[in-house]
Design goal:
heterodimer, A: 259 residues, alpha/beta, 10 strands, globular, B: 288 residues, mainly alpha, 10 helices
């Protein structure tokens, strides 16, 4: 069953001769419970795509459908994890308050808010960090808080915008496994945007390759690697290398065709 | 660093800070000790007046009314400035509509508006408070507008994507984010309010710091007038220290987020790599 349909999405910034088209015509389908990764050359409008899908940015043409309904504003069943954790967590609140804050949107009573926030923090391994402030935590821990905030909101669909781009390699591997774990446990539908091909292949059920801007979906690659995935054995598989190379070649041909 | 050494170096820093004031007072004492000019009375006489008059009857009859006017005026300016600044900052068309008027009115030196305030609010406290508000409201208002407008769009995206209700968005996201800018505006407003308290009392009335200094000056009681000026200085210092103490508590997160807290108060964290310190909020130029 298809959960999220991105239907010929087009986004043009500005008008007249100064207009810049970021998305030409992007179409995607994310199935229920699927983890779909989107990769593309840098500056191909990945963030624009995600903001349109999330209902934060109105598209110029086309539409996003969530469970058959057109997305015109952020839907209650959708949560977003941003790339820049240092700007997406609120520094004037404790970690716990950050995670509990979105539950106000659903009018969750105080006691349940606290319980769900504590659960979400425990799920990302930060059970004892609730009383600290985001700026007292390391980069990886902050991004865990952002994931916990999204989990506490109990979304069906989770959108992530290059969430692990600004942490070190070791932390990135840990966070990737954390994401896979919560995805499986909560049966989430995930749209994961990244510029890291290895990451896309490692995480995804399928990988959609975007062309350079104005972007379209160039191809969608099926990732038939077995689950559960493992940082050592999955990366060592010959199929992993083949998929990685195929997508890499696809993106490089895009970068090379730059005028 | 041990606790003892920390206390020691703090005392050392305080001693350096006191050196210049103590030297100046000593110089003043020594050069004025035999003065018989009524323009420069001996410091001893000034201190006597400070002790007998200002810390005597005048504490209740003049200092207290001044503090009350100052408190009410600054409080009103703060509330009005933040409220109006928030509405204007969040409403682009309103900002465009009000900007010329705001720029015009705040360019008028507030003391010149005193005659109008007198006509509108009478010779009692009303006109004095009105003048204080009229002067102190601008830095608060302008900083609030800038602070509210300057909230990181990413933070607003977070608020929108999690569908925060408008009240939560304002109270938990927008106003705290604008907090450091608002605090900077309040601090300027504080100085302006104190200045206008004294000025308004000098222009009219029956008591208050400004009124009493002016009266002393007119009756050639220069020592007492000087003592009054010292009282104003002390009041200014006290309210500023109080304000800074409150601000440091409330805005602790701001220094923490910019990596400015002492290491022992930021348990177990390094400066995040690749993160530039956020710029210190700056106030637009002081009003009058």
């Amino acid at each position: 069953m298809t959960r999220l349909v991105v239907d010929r999405l087009r986004k043009t910034y500005g008008t007249g001769p100064a207009a810049v088209t970021a998305l030409d015509e992007v179409s995607l389908e994310v199935r229920d419970g699927e983890l779909l990764c989107v990769v593309g050359p840098s500056g191909c409008g990945k963030t624009t795509l995600l903001r349109c899908v999330a209902g934060l940015l109105p598209p110029t043409a086309g539409a996003t459908h969530l469970d058959g309904e057109v997305v015109v504003a952020p839907p209650p069943a959708m949560a977003l994890v941003f790339q820049d954790y240092s700007r997406s967590l609120l520094p004037w609140m404790t970690v716990h308050a950050n995670v509990a804050l979105p539950l106000r949107a659903h009018r969750v009573p105080r006691a349940e808010r606290d319980r769900r926030a504590a659960e979400a923090l425990a799920a990302v391994g930060l059970a004892d960090q609730g009383r600290r402030h985001p700026w007292q935590l390391s980069a990886g821990m902050q991004q865990r808080v952002a994931i916990a905030r999204a989990l506490a909101y109990r979304p069906d669909v989770l959108l992530l915008d290059e969430p692990f781009a600004s942490v070190d390699a070791q932390t990135r591997a840990e966070l990737q496994d954390l994401l896979l774990e919560v995805w499986e446990r909560h049966r989430l539908t995930v749209l994961f945007v990244t510029h890291d091909i290895d990451e896309a292949v490692y995480l995804g059920d399928r990988v959609a390759v975007l062309s350079r801007s104005p972007s379209r979906v160039k191809e969608v690659v099926e990732v038939d690697l077995p689950r559960p995935r493992d940082q050592l054995t999955t990366h060592a598989r010959p199929e992993f290398a083949l998929l990685r190379n195929r997508i890499f070649a696809s993106i490089r041909s895009e970068a090379g065709s730059r005028p | 660093m041990t606790a003892g050494a920390r206390v020691g170096s703090a005392l050392g820093r305080a001693a350096v800070g006191l050196l210049v004031p103590v030297a100046l007072v000593a110089l003043w004492w020594w050069t004025s000790r035999d003065s018989d000019s009524y323009l420069f009375p001996p410091l001893g006489e000034i201190l006597e007046s400070l002790r007998d008059d200002w810390f005597g009857d005048r504490l209740g009859s003049d200092v207290a009314p001044s503090l009350r006017r100052f408190g009410i005026g600054f409080g009103l300016a703060a509330v009005l400035g933040v409220a109006a600044g928030t509405v204007i900052g969040l409403t682009p068309w309103l900002r465009r509509a009000t900007q010329p008027v705001v720029e015009l009115v705040r360019s008028i030196p507030a003391p010149l508006l005193f005659p109008i305030a007198l006509v509108l609010f009478g010779i009692g406290d009303g006109s004095k408070v009105a003048l204080i508000v009229l002067g102190a409201v601008w830095p608060v208002l302008l900083n609030t507008v800038d602070g509210v407008r300057g909230v990181d769009p990413q933070v607003l995206d977070v608020a929108r994507s999690f569908r925060l209700p408008a009240r939560t968005r304002l109270g938990r996201v927008v106003l705290p984010a604008a907090g450091p800018m608002i605090a900077a505006g309040l601090r300027i407003g504080l100085s302006v309010a104190l200045l206008l308290t004294v000025v308004s009392e000098m222009r009219g009335g029956t008591n208050g710091l400004g009124f009493r200094i002016r009266a002393d000056q007119r009756s050639f009681d220069t020592a007492s007038a000087y003592a009054g000026v010292l009282v104003i200085g002390m009041v200014g210092l006290a309210v500023n220290l109080l304000f800074v103490a409150v601000e440091r508590r409330v805005m602790r997160w701001h220094r923490g987020a910019r990596g400015l807290l002492e290491p022992d108060r930021r348990p177990g964290s390094d400066r995040r790599p690749g993160q530039a310190p956020r710029p210190e909020p700056t106030a637009p130029e002081a009003a009058p």
